[in-house]
């Protein structure tokens, strides 16, 4: 039985994927050997890190999508390591694949046992056999399918144990009081000035003299003429209890991270809010401005002038939760029904009162009274809301015999989850969005909720003749390139050469300098006693020349080292899981360090060396002048130069193969020997053949989805961008969205590359757009040169694309659509006589025949990041004991004892303008694809930021940021529930805030995680 913890690398991968998919996407082939000179320089670090397996992975790619994604039961801390986990066979029959970790977005996950036990008396009114409407209860009934019934019984015991800080208990308990009131929450229970919710956001302000009604989004804003009042700036957004006229709360924008927690402390603050927005139901309104990037807008009217505030939180989950929170303050009531579509079955299900138990069960009353166990169960119940919705839908479907076979197939061969659909776009419910399902249901205004199988990026394609092509293994290893970037093969009659490490990721043959490379660990290499590192000679003799890397070997339809029949030990399974995580770490690091790539889709053929193919061959002689397995460390081990290593007049034809490019240039690569050359040719030829067809199939998918929607909605291509961005929900209800286009691979991190393709970029606002290749991978945008030009501007043919820039998405914000008009500056003002009012002429891209007539704003998105930094006291290093001792020493006049060390951290400067990097895609459809992919990476980084407790607001009794003194601070971490601090006396508040300094509200750890 597997004993992997729920937050282990493999468990998280299996949450959205199957063992077969893990096996196929993690395999690689290494073609060696490893040069002796490289081993001399990197022998110790490489052996200890990757061969002996003595290092725990620390890379961002192996981090969980959210710090609270784990769904498995966890025993007390002392027994957490011994907790058994479901195997790949025990949860299924007939050899079907099952998950080694449960997920609320899986069909195989039901409601928590705690929620079911609290609602045993609730009558079951579901009758899906007669109607597709259920009675509104989250409790489960007996399943008519043996498979689902077996899994439901197993999942019913999965009640995770959660550890809270004291501050989290206070805030969650008062949230429970609010929900227990069922909408009759009394504002007088909150003191004046107390914080309701806070977060860090990007803000822009516009003004208009036109009348703005109760709704304002991108579609309506086209007809409203506005003037920019302030640029995009980062602020701390605080919502407080505030009574003035008919308003009961106020939205404040701060330029400091030290925020007063109550009215008594507000007066002590030196720094007042930069702006105040009274949330009056009569004068203030809130709406979801963009359905794509989830930008919010709040507007207020005063003296015939309307001020519009655009609010952009970092994560989409936080944005939609704020939208729900602010609408609730302004009097919005949640809908009593939730509609869930099942497109594969052409069925529409209606759930009555989907959150009835979350809002009305006696658990909330007990939690509000101070019962910690009830509070724990209430939190679990809300975090399991998405899983409960899936369970209810499955129960309704299985009541109809016609869906039995489909449900069995779903249970056996796939993962099923919830996704929000908007025109041709799918937004999967996962991670933080899944945990905040209660708040994100406000998306129902613009999106349709669907129950779908979780599809991944295909592992095969078909040729024009209909033959199936399976994706070949990626390949990597050391090679010697005998060509420069411009395709020049010679200098003064001699052949140029450069030692490089090549590795393939998707359709890209990436290369990096040998000093930056890390070959994969060889299989079955004996570990020396006492951790001794073998000598270079021993490694050369023991490491095979070529070998395959397979972290997830299969036996049948399950991973061999997770097989329960073999009774793998806990240590063995943990070691295998660590090896898989380290291998993923290695692949990501190689991608991040690469210097450029050769696009395999630009390769026409792979062949042996042909003498006479280039002019340099006239001066070349046969001979082994360029040594591959050199012992010189400066040539391989410490070779970190970007220039060519040298030149030669001798080339061994038997070790060289050529890549013939479509532009007529030839790339010559030299392997170790003839055997290695032949292996490289076979592997690369298979990759070229597959990715030619795979890239064509991907573009055909974009074309077919657009053609299908044009037919279904009876529109033309010119109107497609407007309909896709601005149409109301009911107008595009018949549209089609492809789960292959918006697949789960990027969310589940199945591959090192999340997304890649062509974009147009201008790094600053007042520059021009240049075309570039962009690769999105694990929180970074890697930008590569598309076209090589001479000083005169003339285009030069070249063999590879050089890396020119990289953007770290940590702390970045993304916005798109009409909000990018100020960043475009020089928009296309072409007049089309056939379509007056339309400024963009039809365009066609010859590389794949993709056409577009979309306006500039419809294809643009902007990544904003702070360019000014400041020092701030980090909450990770707050020591309240030493602070109190220093205060006492200061009062006693002891100058020596009053000195304490304060650790600072570098944070973005609030209220300052940042730097905007503007990107344009070729069409609205591709723009949406990029925005969704980048937002997934920003969501992951934001979840890590909350988990690690960085960028926090810190209580500081001895002083505060930038000279504030005597100000009590409060952590701004967004809660899984909207934060409400109710009536607590000042001493309790101070005690609670001291606890907050080291424990984030959103950092709810499972017991036993360490």
TrEMBL record:
GO terms for biological process: protein localization to prospore membrane. One of its GO terms (cellular component) is prospore membrane. Residues 473-691, 753-941 form the PH domain. It comes from Baudoinia panamericana (strain UAMH 10762) (Angels' share fungus). This is PH domain-containing protein. Residues 96-106 have a biased composition (Low complexity). PANTHER family: PROSPORE MEMBRANE ADAPTER PROTEIN SPO71 (PTHR28076:SF1), SPORULATION-SPECIFIC PROTEIN 71 (PTHR28076). It holds the Pfam family PH_SPO71. Residues 1-66 form the Sporulation-specific protein 71 N-terminal domain. It comes from the Eukaryota. SMART domains: PH, Spo7_2_N. Residues 57-140, 613-650 are annotated as: Disordered. Residues 86-95, 631-641 have a biased composition (Polar residues). SUPFAM superfamilies: PH domain-like.
